[in-house]
Amino acid sequence: MRPLFAAAGGVALAIALAGCGTGGISKGAADQEHGKKLFLGKGQCAGCHTLAAAGSTGTIGPNLDDAFAQARADGYKESAIRNIVHEQIKYPGQYEVAQNNPSFLSANMPANLVRGQDAEDVAAFVAANAGVQGFAESQLISGTNGKLIFQKKCAGCHTLKDAGTTGTVGPNLDQLMPAFPIVQKQVTNGGVKMPAFKAVLTKAQIDAVAKYVAARAGK
Ligand code: HEC
Ligand code: HEC
To answer: Ligand 1 within 6 A of 97 CB?
Structure first.
């Protein structure tokens, strides 16, 4: 496996962010509605992440529905996902970035976009929603139409002209042109950043999407 996002040793991206202080520090339970507002706020999460519950379609960072559909399929509880998101807000990975190069991220996630109770609220909102619909959707994919599976499960992260997708989290598949066994293995087991789909798609569906990618990439 190629180490895709080679850690570059703290090359933090300085993004000027509008302050998001809301004044009201809610004590006690996290406020998901407030978390959603923050998620959608200017310069916040929505610009970089796809999340159906927020109606956001950002592609700079991973699709959060896809990322956490996998975690849910693996049996992670909502409380665990909440912790993962909260930690990610505080300590996002910082990787080498490059523009117009499908092997690299185009930007890093800045640390502490939201703090304190705001961070708790955003984490609670994401944990309650991410991957719920994504996973339900995958259950609905009853057939083995490789193109449709690709558009539902892979689009957020990969560019493939034939499917009309423009994701940039993973490599551009038109450039990579992977052979069937490579796609099949990658989709089944996942990779460094890519989630595994063996609990989300059936074997026949994995074969179908792998066949589709192998046949259409670069066309
Ligand atoms: C400038 C773009 C950008 C913004 C803004 C941003 N992120 Fe990210 N996010 C990324 C990137 C790139 C990654 C992948 C690298 C990493 O894991 O650190 C990521 C990773 C994540 C992950 C881990 C997903 C996984 O598959 O492991 C979560 C959760 C997350 N972000 C949540 C958020 C939340 C919540 C916010 C808003 C407070 C936010 N992000 C704002 C770019 C962004
Ligand atoms: C959350 C983002 C994400 C999703 C969803 C995703 N991928 Fe990936 N994919 C990646 C990343 C990132 C890589 C680079 C290697 C790694 O880190 O796993 C990658 C790598 C690949 C590779 C190259 C493997 C190799 O050996 O070079 C193929 C092929 C691939 N993905 C196909 C797919 C298909 C088909 C789907 C849908 C079933 C899919 N991916 C869904 C992020 C994603």
So the answer is: no
